Amino acid sequence: MSHEILSAALGGIDAVPVRVQIDSNPGLHSFSIVGLGDKAVQESIDRIEAAIKHSGFVPPRAKNKRFVINLAPADLKKEGPGYDLPIAIAYLQETKQIKPIPSDVMLIGELGLDGKIGHTNGILASTILAHEMGLREIIGPSCNAEEGALVEGVNVIGGDSLVSVVAHLGDTAPLPVTRRCHRVGTGDMSPSDMNLSPGDMVSPGDKGGDTRGAKSVSPGDSFAYIKGQETAKRALIVATAGGHNVLMSGMPGSGKTLLARSVAGLLPPMTLQETLEVAKIYSAAGLMKGSIANITRPFCAPHHTASPASVVGGGSTIRPGQVSLAHRGVLFMDELPEFARNVLESLRQPLEDGIVSISRASGSLTLPAKFMLIGAMNPCPCGNLGDTHSSCSCTPTAIYKYAKRISGPLLDRMDIQVFVSRESVSSDTVPMSQESLRAIRNQIRNTRLRQEVRLSPYGLVTNSEISHTHVDALCMASPSAAKLLQHFVNQKHESLRAYHKIQKVARTIADLDNEDLILDRHVAEAMALRINDRPLSGGR
Which residue, among 418, 414, 388, has the nearest Cα to 231 in the 3D structure? Predict the structure, then answer.
């Protein structure tokens, strides 16, 4: 063995180093790959040989030698076709068709039969690994180079074919270094990047504050066209500003789904760090197909028939689920009681800790899952419970069983719980003006920036992430407001978790009001958004 090429393997959404080693000996022709590779790795033998031949090099079959490729470490399972390029380069080095490449270069990419380099999953995670290892350069598919360029400190080179990569490595036709797109996230900012303080926020009337780009129709515009439902809309504004979970209960046709989907346009643009976190997940899942500049906050809406593995993640080969794909965005679960019980209960850990721990016989992985959960449900199976114009046909037992599908511990983790009633049709109701919608967006954005200034020393982004160890220090209230909250919790026999949830929601309302201290009115509104003595109370 005389040559070794650095590559990477995906473990969840993180990459680990893989050393592609090659050895050759005289004898009857053979080309084998060892090192615990899956079917895609084993099939790469034919792909690589065809790619080498069509690229104008001498293929292994023309050599009277036995070639052995080892993917080290041997006890790590290797999956996917991303090892094609490093194996091909290792072979060309071993047969002296190219010069040895530097040891501070990583290669990853799938080869086509014609020698073209195709889309490969996990380039971003591999680039992060290359940076952590102190490597100078990572070479991969040109179609994935933009996502890798999010990482600074390592040169990301995109190649279209095996020939172009060989020419680059031989310095005969160097490929350009891919530069990061400055439009990433359209919110490529943070208080530290911009040297912002809470007094430097965008004013509600600033027409330049909407950084989402000029579009004739956007998901956020639907919020302005929702007539009525002022209580629910206020609840969603508070929830969006602080990243809080929301549960909406109401009759069919009351607008719960429309309200939930309109939240996507109210969310502020992602910072560079948030964009990096989301891009890493989607890159590992193979969902990074478009330009990195088009990444927006995720909005995931799984169907109620979804399996636990698809929602939480896992499977025989561990992949991110919907809770991880919704990281730094929204997970909308319509008809919440219709989801399987094990799916709902599996949401407890991500809602509490912001992560998903998946354990299998082959090992354990931890995936990020900091999302805003919006749940929608009917008050009863027929949906008419509480409607003044329609009668409910459900028995008390059916209503009770329906509500109990949402367990007490899960319900306790919903920061805001609102009842959405049907609105009457009126020609006098007019849509919200674009100026008012812009002011709401700027208010939410300013609130998020204020939170980030306060929470950045703790490694947090939104008020909903505050742990019980810091909640009292970060959610300072006036004596009267603290007394009001304590009286409410004791009177309603709420849990300590609910007490902290109300504190954090009150902190967000105070941030929306640009107040440093939580006042009585903030606590009162937070309590009102938590009170749920209507049909849903059967599930408590």
Answer: 418
